[in-house]
Structure prediction request, 507 residues.
Amino acid sequence: MASLQPSNSKIQLAATAIVSAAVAAGAILSYQRLQQGERVSRLKQSIPRPDEEDALQKLSRRGPVAKLTKEDEHNQYLAQRAHNGDYDEEMILEQLARNRVFLGDEGLAKLRNAFVVVVGCGGVGSHAAAALARTGVSKLRLIDFDQVTLSSLNRHAVATSNDVGLDKVQCLERRLIAIARWVRFDLRREKFEGLTAPALLAPWGGRPDGQKPDFVIDAIDNIESKVELLKYCYDHGLPVISSMGAGTKSDPTRVTVGDIGTSTDDALSRATRRRLKLLGVTSGIPVVYSTEQMGEGKAALLPLAEEEFQKGPVGDLGVLPDFRVRILPVLGTMPAVFGYTVANHVILKISGYPLDYVQAKGREKMYDGILAFLQGTEEKVVRATTDGSPTIAIGLKVPITTGDVAFLVEEVYKSRSVVTGIPTKLVLVRWRKPQESSMIRIGDEPNEQKSSNVRLRDLVCMTKEEATRHLKEVLQGNKSVEDLYSPSVIQKVEERQTEAEANEQYR
Prediction:
């Protein structure tokens, strides 16, 4: 028995050590969770609610100021001297020598005189901004309301652990002035919204006669802000390029540049494209997107844990309303690929270097033809549901735009007939015959306005031949859709109508 005592003592000692280590680890983890909770709480409290009167002013204030190291102070001093003209031109040209040889003197001069706005300074935006600064762009306006977090470090272009808690725009300036001292930065710690667009995209220096943005980069991951930015740029003739979703992507060879009308079906691309079409923007905006297909074993948007739902409304977990609260898996290399692809496009466009991206397939003429067909069928429907007078529908207006046509045909019906799946000679036609007159009349002759009451949810996509039969037998005749089509077709139409109705709010 005595010989077993040392062994037992060792076992007891080991067990005590394991228990102590477990207790210590638990205490450390609990402390870390507590600290993280306090930081998140402080961050949320620092960002005002949208209903606060001074929300915009609060969002525009600078966040925590970086504690300057001696190196930072030295960099800022040299940058200020460079801005005052105390920087040798030959040194700048030497730093940009490779770009100069590639773009030529004229191309480089255009780039050095350029003013570019980067909206969103996270993974994609930070890499784009860094590439522009390194390549010679001299004026950069950086827009982002957010701060650097630990989780930012796997994909941010320049942030270090010392930058955690700082404004992303401030972090970029802090690091990039050490690379390109002559670059001037205009930092805007704000969330981009439609109401703030005129100020955030204003000419350099805020003067009406100042230099307008030569290009705007959209690196926003919030759909509402993204659509507002792209629509504003489209309406005001500002050159813009948009980055679609880099999350869950892993194949850099599938990243490409194309027109908004040709982008594929990642979630962000699809939602952006749909909203823009409903606002009348069907093409003319270059986008960076991935053609990679999701599949078994690949990353996907992770759901919130069940315990988070038990705490109350999940919207409370977001720093700002309408922002994603689920975890988006991001491979750190992919935002860099997207960011450099965006910057590459901007650099070549501004410098005038030859560049071709996939154009939209000239579909505007097709949309006009579909709209004209719908106009004609609605006039016939009005005559069929009124007294039948040949002149009753003269001057009838249809509340459908080419953007609505693009949305219905391409997004809802996937460019196929709902009846047969045929993808050619497509048109839109009303699905069911109205029970009463479908015409709305306002005013009196000679200023009377006549319009159809047709809505997006009323229309279906068919081939021209199918629609002609449908018009004759259902809309002008006495047959019902149940008489003419199978239950599976009717069910499919009802599903598409529900989808169209859900999106009408975005028009």
The longest helix spans residues 5-46.
